[in-house]
Specification:
Length: about 190
Amino acid sequence: MRVSKVRRKTKETKIEVELNLDGSGKANVNTEIKFLNHLLASFAKHGCFDLKLRARGDFKHHIAEDAMIALGEAIERALGKKVGIERMGDATVPMDDALVLAAVDLSGRAFPDIEAKFAKRKLDDLNSDMIEHMLQALATNGKFNLHVKVLRGKNDHHKAEAIFKALGVALARAASRSPRRREVPSIKGVI
Ligand SMILES: [Mn+2]
């Protein structure tokens, strides 16, 4: 089992993450932001990860940002040396009116490219401009390429939820192990 634990404590926030990449989709996500709990539970369910995440802090902006920093670190640690993984993974996920593409390369290089616009300023109790910021923090701290593109959609809740479903599926595909790959999937020999 590829597991990790990350604790992050600053003057602004306190975050605890436990991640199992080879889990069964069990999520226990407890932040002070209900919509963030919903998004991360969806991510874990559709990526088939076990995720325990607790986050407390001063402002919602800091809580959401630091939760994603810690989750990115947890992904990077749980992947270990990346022997035998597929490395690349993508998913195009519909949710009613919304259609979202997510593509991941677990390359060891941080490169987020996020295209997600929302009609409203708020996604329930989370500011909609946080979605792009959170995904940037995740890919940067997880050291992977992450392209996210909202292709279609009218409903902001659906668009945001489809982003996190697509992220879970794409990441699970990239992290999955192939019986035919016995080495690190790079002609350099390291990632
Ligand atoms: Mn929902």
